[in-house]
Every structure is written in C-alpha cells, then in structure tokens.
Automatic annotation (TrEMBL):
Record carries keyword Transferase: no
Protein name per UniProt: Prohibitin family protein
Signal peptide limits: none
Gene Ontology CC terms: membrane
Segments crossing the lipid bilayer: 12-31
InterPro entries: Band_7, Band_7/SPFH_dom_sf, Prohibitin
Domain Band: 28-193
Annotated PANTHER family: PROHIBITIN, PROHIBITIN 1
C-alpha cells in the first residue's frame, strides 16, 4: 500500500465535515409555514424576537441558519373547560364552557416575547376561571339553573375581555354549555319550579273563570237594560194600536170566525173563531 493511498482518507475528512455542516445549515435556512399559521422570527445576532416587522406568512420562507422561527396557529381556536366555582350561598357549581380565541396577528411578536407559545394556559384560561368565579358568586343556584345562564355567559365574557385585550390575544366568545348543580339542590329547585308552575296554572284558571263570570254579568245587565228600555217604550196607546192591527189582520183570514163588536177590558174587539 503506497503512502498516497494512506493519505487520501485524511484529505477527504475535512471535505466530508464541511459538507455535513453545509447540509445542516442549508436545512435550517428553509421554513415551511402551513395554512392558518404565521411565524415569529428570532434573530440570534439581531436583537432576539422581531416585533417591529410583520409575522412571517404562509408558504416557503428563507432565513439565516442561525436564526429561528416559532410557528403559531392564527385561526380561531376552541378550548373546552370545566370549572369548579361557588354560588352566592357557597355551593359548588360546575360550569362547562367553550372558549373561542386566537392570537392577534399584528401583535404576534409581542405575544411571543411577553407570554410565549403556551399563552392559553398562562394567560387565557386563568383569566376566564377568575372571571367565572367572580360572576357566578353573585348568583344563587336557582338563578344559575333557570334564568341567568345567558347573563353569566355575557358577564364572564366581558370581564375576561377587559384583561385579555391588552395581552395580544383576541377573545371571540365564551359559551356556557352546561351548569351542573349538586343533585340534592337540583332536585329541590325542580320541585320548587314545578310547584310554582302548578300555582301559576291554578291562578290562570281562577282568572279565566272570573273573566267568564264578569262576561256573563255584563251580558245579563245588558239584556236587563234592553228589556227595561223596551218596556218603557210600550205605552197603552202603542199596545192598543198593535192590538187593532193584529185584529184587522186576523179578520182578513179566510177561517170561520165570530166577531163580537164592542170592547174587551183592553178596549179591543173580540174575535172568536170556531177552529
């Protein structure tokens, strides 16, 4: 084996090393950002997180190999949360809620610098839990179970939004999907609501019956008044004239009859028929 053959591997080693380094640097220079994502650029020798430039958009991006890109989901996201809170009288209540949120695109660099990628657990969820405890603590279990669900949903959203807005996060909506009360409390509330419903139905029947009675009284009064007016208008003269008219009509009838001329006690002729 010649000396040249022995020296050849030693000459190739630096080249192989440089090729490996080049491949590594080359692979780190290209970043693919998927649909619905954006990238925050971190410069190792340029001041760290870039906050004065727009975030890197979707597609193929070329960066210096010593820099780094942090990928964020910028579409609306949903998180399901079960929260244990206390009502105004100290009873345990469980809220099942959906939270719709997304990072503010224009403030993505500040979000990464101030909070980081785990902003959901660091900022968003603790804020919503705190707001839920504060809001639910104002209501009784009866109110939470029946008529106040929409109200607490809106109040939790508004209180959370006040804190979240300056944290580079956009809170779109909070939906309270379910309110779970202790079983004994729930049963007591259901019994109470049933009794109230039965009471309302009974009161409705009483009101309906009273209205029907009032209607009948009004109708009876109306008929009595009409009869009174009619009686007052029927004078003796009118009755006599009506009797004469009726007698004349009867006299025209072809049926056999006997007419007695004179007057009855009412001063009317008497007609006696044989039929």
């Amino acid at each position: 084996m010649s000396s040249n053959q022995l020296q050849l591997p030693k000459a190739i080693l630096p080249i192989i090393f440089l090729v490996i380094i080049a491949i590594i640097l080359f692979s780190k220079s290209f970043v693919t950002i998927e649909a619905g994502q954006a990238g925050v650029l971190w410069k190792r020798f340029g001041g760290g997180v870039v906050i004065d430039e727009p975030a890197l958009g979707e597609g193929f991006q070329v960066i210096a190999p010593w820099n780094k890109v942090y990928i964020y989901e910028v579409r609306r996201q949903e998180s399901f949360e079960k929260m244990k809170v206390l009502s105004s009288n100290g009873l345990d209540i469980q809220l099942d809620a959906s939270i719709w949120y997304q990072p503010k695109y224009a403030e993505l660099g500040k979000l990464h610098q101030d909070i980081g990628e785990d902003y959901l657990n660091r900022i968003l969820l603790p804020t919503i839990r705190s707001a839920a405890r504060s809001v639910v603590g104002r209501y009784t279990p009866e109110q939470l179970y029946s008529s106040k669900r929409d109200a607490i949903q809106a109040e939790i959203f508004e209180e959370s939004k006040k804190i979240i807005n300056d944290q580079h996060i956009l809170l779109d909506e909070i939906l309270v999907r379910d309110v779970t009360l202790p079983s004994t409390i729930k049963e007591a509330i259901e019994r109470k609501l049933k009794q109230e419903q039965e009471s309302l139905e009974y009161e409705f029947r009483l009101v309906t019956a009273d209205k029907e009675a009032q209607k009948q009284i009004i109708e009876a009064k109306g008929k009595a008044e009409a009869n009174k007016i009619l009686s007052a208008s029927l004078t003796d003269k009118i009755l006599q004239d009506k009797g004469i008219e009726a007698t004349l009509e009867l006299a025209k009838s072809p049926n056999s009859k006997v007419v007695i001329v004179g007057s009855s006690k009412d001063g009317l002729p008497l007609i006696l028929g044989n039929n």
